[in-house]
Amino acid sequence: MQLPGAPGRRRPPVSHTFSVSSLWTVLLLVVCNFSAAQHVRSLRELSPADITTLALTPDPLKNLDPSNPSSHLAKILIPRPPDTANNTLVREYIVSTLKALKWDVEIDSFVADTPYGKKKMANVIATKDPKAARRVILSAHFDSKFFPSFPESQFLGATDSAAPCAMLLDLAEALDPLLNHRQKLLDEGDEDEEDSETADTTLQLVFFDGEEAYKMWTATDSIYGARHLAEKWEGTYVPSVQARRIHPPGNMLSTIDHLILLDLLGSERPLIRSYYLSTSWLFDAVVSVEKRLLASQSSSFVGDNLQSFFVPRTQLTSQGGFIEDDHIPFLRRGVNILHMITSPFPRVWHTIADDASALHLPTLRRWNLIFRIFVAEYLGLRPPPAGTTTRDDDPSANGHADRSELYQ
Ligand SMILES: [Zn+2]
Question: Which residues are catalytic?
Answer without folding.
Answer: 211, 263
